[in-house]
């Protein structure tokens, strides 16, 4: 049986259980791929004998959020003891994209545990191909730069955004830092590339395992196994008659080998399906003053907050929010390790440090609103102190690993199991008091992702996956906030996942900037590179953590940090006691804030597979002034500790060498 769909630019072929999605000439794309699901009894990853199934194909016209197109639905059924499988392919007029979905229908008489769902994989004759030579092929993914695995010690940094495909081994998408869920494969000498991306994140994460061994043709990649996995649960249990809907997958053949433009269509397509916070967020044009960095930290008080709020109102029209970070909780000043939600137990009103906030939080939020500023507050939900009252009364709330041992954030810090109903009730109670009773309109959600991302965790209650609980928590916080309030996610610092943007306005992608020391600055710069061209305010706004002034480091390092945050279009948060800064440093802050458009596009002129240094040195963006005029901002950075000669070619930043420009 053969079925073919095409739109003049791409071709989808399905034959004898295998599919190919390629350019019209067949030289680029996914060739001869098969499908597989891992059930409780286990299944081989090799192609199955599809002659054992009854196969029914149907086609129909399509007109959905992505436009007009064609849909091919294939049903594999009637294999005794196995569920029916439904494969749906969608292609669209004038687009080089394929959206697909792999579903299961349990038409057996027994319950089936589905551990892993492979949407497709290469087989002995299959391959993934771009260009004519695997030696010339590279791939880009956020995990090439940084990935997080809690039990392996946290951040694992390689700072190599481009990786050569030949002989490479990688598992991408399983990092615990909410990576951008898309892989880009391209050739240095071929102006085409492939995008393989998640188009939904409801229950399962999309993970791609690849190995850079040449296929039989010598042109493509032989081992390519994308799969859908769950965290926190063993798998999904399907009762007789029940249907499992797989996540949607987005494949695209792009007419570029440049990752800075390759993801545009993917992000546009997401924006047509999902309503993201980034485009409507107040944080695009209004920054936040936060109390944590540049010397205040846990010593925050009502007096410090109001003093800085009055100063902000007088000197910084671009700042619209005042955010109280950790330090408002009673007893936190002498606590070792990060603050946790146990510092708000049994409920926030009894845990507020009244010596530091003598009039209470409702008084403070009202005062901030009287100044024309909006109040926000920090909270952590997933970690808990081992010696806390909370754990002494509820030891059964602890999140555990497969071994049965508690999962530790630090030696004295454990984690909470979000699958326990009482844990969720307590978290919601605390959030409701902060927002509805204390009057805060923005939430900085820190140490939150460990509920959902740690690979070794096992939930006590197995009815929902970690993604389902993640979406539950973020949606509940969103429902408590005003429509134009903001939600920021922090640790584990994310790496561009747009699906967070359905609920959250911004995410912090780097570590705390702390006092603004150079080691914190350069790490933030490296981490931002792969997320600069992955949506920005079209989905969720990246936050470099707070800009500010460290009077203990050289002026050039301070200005380099401010310039970097400006060029990264990430002026979300301003930190430190601004009232103590000299006028010339205040002017530096005012100058960079005058360009604020958080999450707007910015580009690198020197990003390439063969660049001999990292991070890029030449950054640029356009800032419209009027319909006919604009400004171009160009940042030239020497990130090393020695003098360097850096050449700037005007055409690389979109300027014409023959024209005169005013600098």
Describe the structure.
There is one protein chain. With 663 residues, the chain is an alpha+beta fold. 17% of the residues lie in helices and 32% in strands. It has ten helices and 37 strands. The longest helix has 17 residues, at 421-437. It starts with a strand and ends in a 27-residue tail after the last strand.
Distance between the termini: 65 Å
Oligomer: single chain
Number of helices: 10
Radius of gyration over C-alpha positions, nearest whole angstrom: 26 Å
How many extended strands?
37
Indicate the structural class.
Answer: alpha+beta
Outline: globular
User: Strand-residue fraction?
Assistant: 25-35%
Mean pLDDT: 93
Helical coverage, percent range: 10-25%
Unreliable segments of 5+ consecutive residues: none
Largest pleated sheet: 10 strands, antiparallel
């Amino acid at each position: 049986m053969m079925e073919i769909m095409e739109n003049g630019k791409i071709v989808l072929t399905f034959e004898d259980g295998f599919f190919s999605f390629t350019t019209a000439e067949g030289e680029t794309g996914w060739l001869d791929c098969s499908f597989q699901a891992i059930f409780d009894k286990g299944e081989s990853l090799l192609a199955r004998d599809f002659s054992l199934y009854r196969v029914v194909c149907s086609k129909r016209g399509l007109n959905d959020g992505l436009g007009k197109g064609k849909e091919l639905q294939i049903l594999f059924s009637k294999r005794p003891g196995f569920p029916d499988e439904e494969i749906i392919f969608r292609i669209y007029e004038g687009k080089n994209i394929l959206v697909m979905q792999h579903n299961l229908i349990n038409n057996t008489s027994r319950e089936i545990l589905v551990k892993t769902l492979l949407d497709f994989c290469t087989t002995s004759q299959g391959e993934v191909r771009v260009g004519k030579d695997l030696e010339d092929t590279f791939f880009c993914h956020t995990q090439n730069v940084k990935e997080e695995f809690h039990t392996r010690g946290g951040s694992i940094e390689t700072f190599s955004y481009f990786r050569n495909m030949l002989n490479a081994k990688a598992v991408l998408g399983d990092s615990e830092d909410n990576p951008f869920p898309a892989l880009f494969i391209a050739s240095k000498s071929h102006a085409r590339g492939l995008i393989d991306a998640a188009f939904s994140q409801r229950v399962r994460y999309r993970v791609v395992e690849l190995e850079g061994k040449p296929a039989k043709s010598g042109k493509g990649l032989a081992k390519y196994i994308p799969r859908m996995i769950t965290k926190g649960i063993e798998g999904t249990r399907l009762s007789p008659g029940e249907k499992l809907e797989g996540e949607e997958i987005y494949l695209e053949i792009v007419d570029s080998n440049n990752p800075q433009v390759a993801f545009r269509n993917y992000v546009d397509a997401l924006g047509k399906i999902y309503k993201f916070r980034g485009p409507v967020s107040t944080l695009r044009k209004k920054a936040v003053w936060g109390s944590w960095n540049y010397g205040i930290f846990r010593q925050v008080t009502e007096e410090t907050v109001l003093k800085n709020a009055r100063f902000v109102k007088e000197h910084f029209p671009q700042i619209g929010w005042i955010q109280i970070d950790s330090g408002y909780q009673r007893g936190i000043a002498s606590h070792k390790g990060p603050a946790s939600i146990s510092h708000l137990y049994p409920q926030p009103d009894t845990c507020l440090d009244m010596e530091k906030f003598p009039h209470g939080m409702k008084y403070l939020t009202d005062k901030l609103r009287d100044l024309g500023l909006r109040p926000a507050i920090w909270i952590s939900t997933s970690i808990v102190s081992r010696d806390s009252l909370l754990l002494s009364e509820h030891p059964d709330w602890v999140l555990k690993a497969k071994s049965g041992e508690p999962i530790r954030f630090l030696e004295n810090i454990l984690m909470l199991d979000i699958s326990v109903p009482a844990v969720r009730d307590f978290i919601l109670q605390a959030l409701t008091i902060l927002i509805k009773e204390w009057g805060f309109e923005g939430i900085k959600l820190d140490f939150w992702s460990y509920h959902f991302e740690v690979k070794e965790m096992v939930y006590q209650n197995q009815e929902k996956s970690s993604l389902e609980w993640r979406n539950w928590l973020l949606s509940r916080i969103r429902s408590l906030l005003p429509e134009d309030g903001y939600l920021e996610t922090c640790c584990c610092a994310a790496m561009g996942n747009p699906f967070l943007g359905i609920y959250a306005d911004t995410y912090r992608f780097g570590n705390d900037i702390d006092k603004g020391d150079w080691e914190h600055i350069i790490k933030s710069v490296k981490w931002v590179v792969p997320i600069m061209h992955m949506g920005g305010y079209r989905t969720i706004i990246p936050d470099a953590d707070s800009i500010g002034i460290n009077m203990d480091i050289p002026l050039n390092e301070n200005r380099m940090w401010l310039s970097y945050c400006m060029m990264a279009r990430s002026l979300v948060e301003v930190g430190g006691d601004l009232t103590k800064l000299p006028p010339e440093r205040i002017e530096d802050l005012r100058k960079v804030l005058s360009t604020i458009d958080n999450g707007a596009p910015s580009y690198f002129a020197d990003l390439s597979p063969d660049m001999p240094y990292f991070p890029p040195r030449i950054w640029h963006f356009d800032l419209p002034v009027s319909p006919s005029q604009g400004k171009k901002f160009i940042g030239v950075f020497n990130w090393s500790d020695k003098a360097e000669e850096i050449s700037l070619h005007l055409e690389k930043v979109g300027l014409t060498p023959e024209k005169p420009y005013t600098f």
